[in-house]
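TASK: fixed-backbone design
INPUT:
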């Protein structure tokens, strides 16, 4: 027998994903219009007719092709996570992780691995609003040299259910109701809470979904989690459990509920626009990848099961090690081709990363490939440009709808002698994926492990770890969600369920929804806290990319405006001029400034903070503008930082910010910072004003103000 050729060493593909996509890009600038066959079209405004007023002719191939293509433009939206926004970028590891995993993209700090990320809401349809109360998807595709790795996570570290077989029930319960397809993109209806009241395992996730985590200020300001316990395997074959985390370098920040509802009307694309604009402006979102690594011998040392996706591994038990950074630096060229057609799958792993027996994960390993077959119309969706691996692919799979690859050679089977067995399996040392040789044995049972049955301790841990304002938000969220439930028995069952977590919380919920509190006050008997579960422990030292509204009318003080906006820009924020009309406004010394937005094209809910410079005439005018007063009141009510200099302080007095002290006319040069309202009368002290105002913006929100119910907005 002739000696067999050795397969070539894996060719490391040094192409970036951007270069890879180049061959598929089209740019019609300077080009003639053609049909799909490349025939130039001479006229596209009238169909071909028999006489000017006669019937359209079948032979009009251009008309038929144009209409037919249009008729087929839609594909089914994702059954969940239908609304999403994508971005390209790259990932770099800080130092080699060889001790824990042989994954090539986690070895070399100088290597940039291209990524594509899709953020999403879960429940709403493709056209639904961004700012609804919901979990957010955080799915990352790493185009590594060893093949594509997908980390398909969420912005909450736990999930609703423990076993994938319940997923269709969960989704049916939370999606709009059967008879009338209402409500859109909301859990606040009977069927969802009916399901909740009957499913104790959901309790921990409910605490997360009713917390501020469900209302992210930005995709750039939320965490991500792999949720399941996965496995790292090193070159020696040693396996360890691993939990994945993403943390945003801008800190974790949320919107407030009233604001989210208003944004849904003012700008339903709020989070999508935010991501897009940030990348266009060069404010590239950055996230650190973290891992919690657990030795196999420690598998049973926790009071929960590592295979149970309704549990976190508290940071106090296993610290997070931050191992690398992802930067998103390029918007897609085409939403449909990239963000809509991208297909994630938790089963896309590379050598060094492996699964565990988490029954939720095991079910997902089936579902994601299956769903693409209907959504993307056949088995060749991996050939769609955004889904193509950067690593070369060779196998004996053939044909099917929309096959792009032109396979050469006589054979499409293995083993074969005609082509020396090519393409042939790679041994492990040549990068062949070998599944972790975990020992498993047992009887076939349809059962849930006893170790999965504590549904309340971690829900209580979460509740205990919240700050007072966060607790208040959770209670109010229950009031809203259950307040929308019509069946009183359904409301009651949820109160009883929550009584297992914390008796006081159950009483506070009952109070707001017209049901009697549980007969006996319950609780999980947990007093522990895990401080980092609270968003108030997040980084609060940057105002990078925050949007600051500057309210202006004719006659403002130009010097003040410049000094403050320059300082804000210097710190990386984006001040925008808001006035009654588009065009320009003139300062007291005759300088013209361009208006970015008029009152009718924007609203305070679309900004992070407000600033009002001095100028006598300008302030007298603003006092008469209902929109300006409303703008301030609303920003105040939503606990946003407000800054005013010179006569600008008088506008705050006119808005009546319920008892928050502002700099008095006599206070010469002293800055006053009270509950995020920062004021100064004399511009001499503007530098210290800038410092305090920037500090107030970095804190994001000033929750003390929430108690001021009287402020109109
Ligand atoms: Fe998904 N999930 N999921 N999921 N999921 C989908 O796949 C599914 C779960 C997540 O931006 C679907 O391509 C089952 C957990 C994200 O394209 C579908 C179960 C987590 C995305 C599907 C889960 C997720 C999806 C719908 C229970 C966090 C959007 C369309 C076992 C760790 C990805 C699609 C994107 C999408 C099934 C639970 C995250 C139907 C059966 C847990 C981020 O395959």
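OUTPUT:
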């Amino acid at each position: 027998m002739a000696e067999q050729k050795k397969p070539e060493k894996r060719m490391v593909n040094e192409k970036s994903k951007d270069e890879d996509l180049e061959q598929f890009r089209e740019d019609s600038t300077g080009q003639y219009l053609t049909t799909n066959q490349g025939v130039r079209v001479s006229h596209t405004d009238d169909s071909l007719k028999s006489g000017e007023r006669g019937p359209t002719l079948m032979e009009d191939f251009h008309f038929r092709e144009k209409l037919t293509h249009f008729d087929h433009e839609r594909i089914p939206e994702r059954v969940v996570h239908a609304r999403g926004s994508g971005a390209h970028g790259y990932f770099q590891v800080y130092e080699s992780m060889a001790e824990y995993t042989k994954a090539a993209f986690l070895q070399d700090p100088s290597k940039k691995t291209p990524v594509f990320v899709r953020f999403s809401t879960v429940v709403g349809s493709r056209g639904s609003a961004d700012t609804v109360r919901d979990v957010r998807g955080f799915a990352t595709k790493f185009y590594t040299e060893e093949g594509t790795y997908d980390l398909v996570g969420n912005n909450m570290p736990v999930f609703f259910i423990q076993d994938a077989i319940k997923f269709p029930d969960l989704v049916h319960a939370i999606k709009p109701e059967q008879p009338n397809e209402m409500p859109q993109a909301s859990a606040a209806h009977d069927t969802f809470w009916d399901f909740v009241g009957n499913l104790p395992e959901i309790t921990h996730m409910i605490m997360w979904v009713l917390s501020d985590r469900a209302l992210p200020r930005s995709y750039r300001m939320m965490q991500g989690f792999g949720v399941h316990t996965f496995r790292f395997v090193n070159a020696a074959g040693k396996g360890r459990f691993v939990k994945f985390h993403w943390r945003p370098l801008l800190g974790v920040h949320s919107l407030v509920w009233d604001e989210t509802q208003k944004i849904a009307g003012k700008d339903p694309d709020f989070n999508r626009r935010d991501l897009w604009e940030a990348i266009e402006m060069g404010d590239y979102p950055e996230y650190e990848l973290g891992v919690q690594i657990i030795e196999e011998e420690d598998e049973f040392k926790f009071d929960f099961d590592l295979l149970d996706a309704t549990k976190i591994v508290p940071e106090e038990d296993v610290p997070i090690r931050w191992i690398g950074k992802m930067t998103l630096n390029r918007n897609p060229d085409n939403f449909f081709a990239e963000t809509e057609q991208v297909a994630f799958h938790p089963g896309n792993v590379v050598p060094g990363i492996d699964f565990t027996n988490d029954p939720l994960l095991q079910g997902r390993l089936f579902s994601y490939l299956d769903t693409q077959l209907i959504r993307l119309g056949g088995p060749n969706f991996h050939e769609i440009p955004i889904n193509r691996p950067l690593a070369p692919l060779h196998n004996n799979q053939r044909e099917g709808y929309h096959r792009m690859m032109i396979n050469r050679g006589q054979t499409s089977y293995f083993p074969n002698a005609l082509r020396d067995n090519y393409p042939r399996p790679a041994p492990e040392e040549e990068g062949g994926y070998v599944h972790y040789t975990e020992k498993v044995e047992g009887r076939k049972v349809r059962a849930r492990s006893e170790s999965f049955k504590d549904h309340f301790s971690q829900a209580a841990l979460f509740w205990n770890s919240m700050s007072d304002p966060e607790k208040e938000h959770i209670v109010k969220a229950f009031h809203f969600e259950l307040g929308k439930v019509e069946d009183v028995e359904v409301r009651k069952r949820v109160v009883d369920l929550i009584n297992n977590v914390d008796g006081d919380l159950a009483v506070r919920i009952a109070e707001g929804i017209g049901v009697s509190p549980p007969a006996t006050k319950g609780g999980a008997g947990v007093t522990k806290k895990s401080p980092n579960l609270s968003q108030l422990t997040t980084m609060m030292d940057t105002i990078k990319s925050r949007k600051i509204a500057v309210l202006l009318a004719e006659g403002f003080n130009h010097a003040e405006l410049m000094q403050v906006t320059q300082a804000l820009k210097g710190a990386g924020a984006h001040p925008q001029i808001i006035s009654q009309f588009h065009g320009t406004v003139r300062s007291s010394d005759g300088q013209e400034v361009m208006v970015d937005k008029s009152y009718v094209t924007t609203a305070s809910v679309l900004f992070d903070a407000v600033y009002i410079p001095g100028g006598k005439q300008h302030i007298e005018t603003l006092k008469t503008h209902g929109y300006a007063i409303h703008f301030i009141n609303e920003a105040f009510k939503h606990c946003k930082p407000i800054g005013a200099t010179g006569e600008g302080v008088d506008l705050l007095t006119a808005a009546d910010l319920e008892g928050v002290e502002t700099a008095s006319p006599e206070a010469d040069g002293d800055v006053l910072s009270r509950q995020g309202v920062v004021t100064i009368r004399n511009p001499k002290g503007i530098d210290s004003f800038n410092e305090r105002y920037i500090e107030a913006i970095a804190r994001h929100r000033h929750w003390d103000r929430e108690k001021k119910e009287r402020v109109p907005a």
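COMMENT: Residues 78-81, 84, 118, 120, 137, 139, 152-154, 159, 164, 167, 227, 309, 343-344, 360, 363-364, 367-368, 371 surround HDE (CB under 6 Å).
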